[in-house]
Amino acid sequence: MATVVELPVVPPPLPVGWTAPAGSGKPISSLVERRLLPAGPAYLAHVRRAVHNLTFEQHDKHAEEERKRLEALNGNGLNGEDDLGVGEEKETEELLTLDPKEWKKQDHYAVLGLSHLRYKATDEQIKIAHRKKVLKHHPDKKAGVAGDSNDDAFFKCIQKAMEVLTNPERRRQFDSVDPYYELLEADVPTAAQVTKAKDPQSYFFRKFAPVFEREARFSKKQPVPMLGSYEASKEVVEGFYDFWYNFDSWRSFEYLDKEVNEGSDNRDDKRYTEKKNKSERARRKKEDTARLRGIVDVALGVDPRIKRIKQEEKDAREAKKKNKGGVTNGVKSKEQQEERRRRKRKRRSGKRGGKGALRARRQRRRRQPPPPPPKKHGDSSVWRKRLPHKLFVA
């Protein structure tokens, strides 16, 4: 049986001058008659079951079918296994009010809901995203829901985005001037930011790694060496900078060309526009090459691995000098002694056979056949002196 233990606890006395607070309660308001109306999803479900004489199981089955129908109407009717990571992106008001006449200024990936994938999106993912948008924004589908059924401007933008992204050449041109990545191109750390960071080493790899990853998509040569880690060897670091200093880019700027005025048959105008576009493409290409070269220069200047490699080479040279200093000056290495003996033998053999060698050369010269006679005047070939094989030029 449990026991009760009493503890002698004495509450502290009230402070001097304390007074009880005034009561804060209010009287209960008088009763008022109100009219209550049945509402809410639970009541609506009850009404459906009562009107259609349905059981709970039948009602749930009908609700599931209605949910699937609405998903198909809104473009969400694809199974998760067929989605391939496309997902759903929020459509902003600015996106829905795009002008199809200004299709070159639109973000084709955002129109199809592929902003999170962009150049990494596969052809299958583009098809799935296009199907979702068509099911959601097709004029025939919009006629069954609230809204203006004649407003098919965004649907035209969807079709134009699909047309660009399914054409390999046009997609590559758009990827070259992707507005999303053009904003990121300005977000490149400077040498001062790296050196002033609390931890320059980690800051360097954290900031420059995504920069080189973005630029790698333009390389004609694959795979592209990435920045790597601090422990990378000298050969790896030299190979990395050698690749990026000789970077071969496929990036082009045809997408930004000015269009020839529609209906203009003037050949001079067309030639002038084409010439202007060509010069602008060359200028942008030159600026892009200089921009990338500047990034590589900054990275090379603040790369902590360069300092580490130089220090390792300096330590190796000092260790080598230290080891050489321990050897007696009068003692030669084995290779030096062997070389010295070889030179002595060569000099002795030259002295012994000097006259004999000269006599042998004269005899060989006498045994050589005489040169052929010169050709007659008018012959196209010209007699030439007999020359050694390596110096002979036909």
UniProtKB/TrEMBL annotation:
PROSITE patterns: DNAJ_2 (PS50076). GO terms for biological process: 'de novo' cotranslational protein folding; regulation of translational fidelity. SMART domains: DnaJ. GO terms for molecular function: Hsp70 protein binding; ribosome binding. InterPro entries: DnaJ_domain, J_dom_sf, ZUO1-like_ZHD, Zuotin/DnaJC2, Zuotin_N. GO terms for cellular component: cytosol. Residues 107-178 form the J domain. Coiled coil: none annotated. Residues 341-368, 383-394 have a biased composition (Basic residues). Residues 261-288, 309-394 are annotated as: Disordered. Residues 309-318 have a biased composition (Basic and acidic residues). This is Zuotin. The gene is zuo1.
